[in-house]
Amino acid sequence: MFSKETLTVTRRTALLGATALLTLPRIGLAQAAPVDGGRLILIARPEPATLGLGLNLQAPTIYVGGKIFESLLTYSSDLAPMPSLATSWSISEDGLTYRFELRQNATWHDGTPFTSADVVFTADDMMRSSHPRWKLLAETYVERIEADGDFAVVFTLKEPFSAFIYAFELSSLPIMAKHVYEGTDYRTNPANNAPIGTGPFKFVSWNRGQSIELERYEDYWDETPAHLDQVTFLVIPDAASRETAFEQQIVDVLRPGDVEGFVARRLSEADDVIMTTMGEEFYAPHAFIQMNLRKPPFNNLKIRQAVMHAVDREFISNNIWFGMASPATGPVSSRTAFYEPDVTPYPFDIEKARGLVADSGLSGDDLKVTLTPLPYGQQWDRTAEYIAQQLTQAGLDVSIRGVDVSGWAQALSTWEFDLALNYTYQYAHPALGVARHYLSSNIIQGTPAANNEGYSDPEVDRLFAEAANSVDTEETQRLYSEAQKRLVDDVALGWIFEMRSPTIYRDTTNEVVTSAIGVMDTMKATWKAA
Amino acid sequence: MTYKIFLTRLGNGLLVLLGVAIMNFTLVHMAPGDPAMIFAGEAGGGDETYVEQLRQDMGLDKPLVTQFAIYAGDLLRGDLGYSFRNQRDVASMIVERIPATLLLTMTAFGIALIIGIVFGMLGGWFRNTLLDRGLMIVTLVLYATPLFWLAMMFVLLFSVRLGWFPPFGMQSVLVPDAPLDRLLDIGRHLVLPAFSLGLFYAATYARLVRASVINVSNADFVKTARAKGVPGGRILRVHVLRNAILPVFSLASVHIGQLVGGAVLTETVFAWPGIGRLMFDAILQRDYPVILGVFLTTGLLVILVNIVTDLLYRIVDPRIEHTAGN
């Protein structure tokens, strides 16, 4: 299911591949023993509001906090669970008990030993109140969380939940220090701005508006601590300045989104620059057109089908996203578990779209809609303009309503939209990142990451519920496949593309992307050639 | 007399500040976007109960009038509020950013004044010459150039191409230990943002001073000085410039107010950690306490600057004091 994900091949890497002999010394360099020391300079964009990872899950907080905190597991690029603070784990045959053996030599950055009490406190107390996603998961599925001695934790579920093994990634359950947070107001705890974690790098300083400084934690549990001496995050709010910073070799790595795709493509053409689209397999960001199904014209299936036929997803992927996207076929990303490729296709066909609009029985003001773009940069703006243009050609009367991020979030969270652009993280499993957009129980206000469009189908609800509870992989696949087919037939959302965001770095920096969350991970294996 | 005027101005200023506080509060709360929803989104999304809980914690569940009464009460106690999002006192966040903004904007202002006055004086004194035309073309181009574009061109030329100055930030990643080296490091980082910001205002001053110099040059007292055989340089320095510079004070008091409010574009392009960027980020995140705190602080600074300018005006041109006295 992950065979489609490959390293993006740039012109330079293609040339290198063709001239294998020339590449050998470089490969030799990459496979050479890691060099200890040096400073890695990254960009915090935008500046995080806090570094309390359990309280804020914005990308910059995860990016910085991911070097300081850890979860029980991490995941390889093929989504296989790997040890982190847990050394091993076992799942009972009935799928109800998850047991984790913990590291016995891990310590917090203030020297306090890490124990099972920290895990129980985090999962059963702190995250239940501060982390809405974990709260929902725990309240729905978790019966109890118990320590078994100092170095084992047992999660007992109310019912089987096959996605539970994917709930131990950094942004889902970052383990927080009980001795730092217990008995305090979590949101105002001073440690949120001077965090204490168990990760390979410890917090040194935060010069607001300028930089965040981390240094190697010498007492890290791994026999091989981080290779780098320091990691510095520079706060650079302007995209052109970030581009300059990389070109001037002031920063070493650009994470996805630091620069627009067309800039990434240009930067990657330099001889000493490497670009990869690996490192987002866990999140698998999936972009879609959200249609408000509560009112005309999008409560009409023909109009929704027309939207799918009017938008050329290949064109968007190749020309607006410069190949750093691939067309989506349905609600589940091809990088996520239980993807079903055999769904009703909606090939680009503007004539068919026009016909569907004409057959819909709607006309005049019913076809007048506003499109709320996702205000995340030029590529999203161009995508919105293209979609508006195509839908206008199909017969809708589309105007774009430009808003900032807050306005966009409010429009979606309060259902005050006709059409909107959005994307979602899939968190490796449909039960974690996909179902929330279609379950009728999740038609809630307050977040743009729910069933904001108002889709409701009891059969889809049943399929998702049974699939989540299934411990038989084949049966799970069958249930999810059926759910995907129904959703695609109904055009619950207008899926556009799977994002393939680039990470860019110089070839003197090694082991930058080593897991399914890429540069969001600890980067303890990253090293710089002397 | 100056003392009385100062007190009157201060009283008026406090009234203006009250108006500013009411207007800011109303406008900020009228803008679309709910801080609780944004916060919930940052925490990974949340249901209505979670958002409502946040709204209560932030005090947003109360009627607007009650919220303003609480805000006004806090202000009277000298409390600018608490940023729920940043988990910090607003006052400390602002105090932290003001030095960077003042350093940038005052340097830019100094550059603007020096270049503007020199260019304007030369243009006016040597009016209709090649020098005058050349200077006025330069100022026109600077005046017409968008600030952010000029800033980016500066980065491309002086940083990327020539490598003379750092492209962004206020100090290097490896901050030098020695105080003098640290100052020099900040100075090198300051050059590009200060010049790109200052040149725009320099163009305005140059054109203003030029017109004023031409006007004063034709005044009777200047003709008399010439008739008495006073050297040209002394006429320009003592008689013309001192009178021609007065309009600059009026305009400068407006500009300086704008500048202390934060040079948002310049601070963003050059990643300068000032109050303008703090305000911009706060607006995007609907961080009401920070937005209100920054607006109020800058409003206060503008009022103070205007009072100081009024007083300076009287020192530079004693006739104003005399007229007021009469």
UniProtKB/TrEMBL annotation, chain A:
Keywords: Signal. Pfam families: SBP_bac_5. Residues 81-442 form the Solute-binding protein family domain. It comes from the Bacteria. Its main location: periplasm. Residues 1-32 form the signal peptide. It is found in: Periplasm. Belongs to the bacterial solute-binding protein 5 family. This is ABC transporter substrate-binding protein. It comes from Pseudodonghicola flavimaris.
Automatic annotation (TrEMBL), chain B:
Keywords: Cell membrane, Membrane, Transmembrane, Transmembrane helix, Transport. It comes from the Bacteria. Its main location: membrane. Pfam families: BPD_transp_1, BPD_transp_1_N. The chain crosses the membrane at residues 12-31, 98-122, 134-160, 190-208, 244-270, 290-313. InterPro entries: BPD_transp_1_N (IPR045621), MetI-like (IPR000515), MetI-like_sf (IPR035906). It is a multi-pass membrane protein. This is ABC transporter permease. Coiled coil: none annotated. Belongs to the binding-protein-dependent transport system permease family. It is found in: Cell membrane. Residues 98-313 form the ABC transmembrane type-1 domain.
